[in-house]
Design a protein that fits this description.
Length: 675
Amino acid sequence: MSKRSWSVANAAQGLLDMNSGSRSATNATSMSPPQIHLQQDSPNGPQISRKVKACAACRKQKIKCLMDNNGEPPCRRCIERGLSCVLNKSLQTLISERSQWKDDMHRDISNMHGAVQDILKRLSMPALQPLKAPSAAEDPQETSPYDDTVVEKVEDVGPSCDNSPKLPPQTESLQNVPIESLYQITRLRSLRAENSGDESKADEGSDVVSKGIVSLEDAQRLTTLYLQRLDHYAYSIANKFKDLQSIRRRSVALTNAILTVAALHDPNSNQLFGPCCREFKRVLAESMFVRRIDREDLRAMCIGSYWLSDMSYTLSGHAIRRAMAINLSSNYYRVLNDGSEDAADCLRLWYMLYICDQHLSILYGRPTTIRIDDPSLQGWERYLEVRVAVEQDRRTASQVALMVIMGTIREFFDRHSRDTQTLPQNLTEHINSFDRQIDRWVETWYQHLKRRDDIGDWPSKGVLLHSNLARLHLHSHIFRGLSTAPIPPYFRPSASSAVSAANTIVEVLLSDPDMRSGLVGMPHYLHTMIAFACGFLLQMTTKYDGDLVQRQHVHDLINRLVAQLRQMPTGKFHLVRFMAEGLEKMVEASMRTPTQPAAQLFNGGFQYMNEQHYRDPAAVAQMDMMGGGAGGTGAGQHNDYGGGNDGFMIPDFGLSNSFLPFEDPVFRTSDFGYL
């Protein structure tokens, strides 16, 4: 049996003396520290009652073992005698060291597992299964009591501050904006916007492919559909990407956005649209409070706002605010000064955001977020002169130029009239001036936009479609506040122009193959404006039948469009499906509604208009330019198409027509099947 150490022996002797009363309370108190120390050695693990401090040779001779190297062998005696100095460890020490080794291994494996997970996430590959063994940092029962390296991680819920030294007052100039002064005082990072959105941030989470929601084969098919067809209708906003893999490497949000939009248009991907859309919303929701915005996230929000009608208003507003935070519009000057490709890409995003902003302003009748007098918008002509400008930039600039005109129209009428007030006569010249601006816009761009193999003559023919939509938007304002009152003589030309524009819009969609094909691919703004044109014509039949419109002609025209919409190869959640069903119900309601004689609605002297009104020379000339021959389309022609539609509740098309003088219940917008 080995000899006990002097400290333990003395402690035991002290306890015996206390029990026998031979020692004083002072001596007993002096023995208490070793006892307390022994009790606190290991509260969660096995207590080490004795610690081996003598080597095997000294223990065998039962002599004191003196070790100079912090209690580590060899001891003095073994050094002097040249003996092998071995320090045998007790069982408790072995258990303690093994527990420490196990904790270290747990932490090392957890670190490697986390590193591999991060690599897989960056490569957009499936994640590993969670570790089955709990790590030492996660399981307090497995943590060694001797491990001083484990530090509890506490979440910092307070605002973060910059630790950079504050500049002395004499070196600081007067701040241009008040928030900068507050930042200088508090150094709160949240008060400062990011300087740039050029660099990509690490994607958090996985896209729909990594999660197994969409198979790789389906994802590649949908990406091809988007890049080779749909993207051209959005001015090639994503043409920098060539395949699915390049998109997945850059952004989860962009991947989900492209797959969602493609699934919406693909008739064979109805089951994928819902899951993709939910994931797209989830990723965007998680990025709402992330300070740094990535350029590809802005691109994803542009794509969503352009095609997804149920979230377009929210996405556009959020994207514009984030773009303003990083001063995205300043890339206009970078392009002019440096001709940078990178700056040109940022400027294209800014123009796209402006287009979406104006589209939604027109559809909802709400103010825009981006000011029309922004230098980058007024100076689009200078941008086209730089070397980095390509054909897609011409198409983008054409739309920017038109949106500037339409934005000016909206602001003008907002200042000079209300929905319940009739327009004064002195606005006639302003309306004619706006109409001439639209004419000049058509003359400028119709011949300059070239044919494309992927979308045909859509760029140039789209100019004519947009011009008619703009005219309808402009001239329909004269119906504000009229209710059942007759149209004033000085607004008669505008009323006729509005009806002619609406009629031309529908006829070119029926007669021109490029326009028909574009129904699957065009943004939801155009679908909404087409629905507005149809609703406008149908509403005209209840008040102005036999004068401005021919009731039977309008019904035949809309019925043919309904058949055409049902024929379009697209997903069941696409707007054209709901438009077909809603327009059909509106035509049926219009047929059941009695009309008022046109003579009761006008001051005397107006001549009734006949079918020749629909052969308006301007409308016929435009359709001849498009090569469709729609000018000779008879009112009695009708094509029978099959088709079906699944009910699905979607948000408002923006067809309130609040400025039109019609209150008939037969034209409830609920006929379109939306909330």
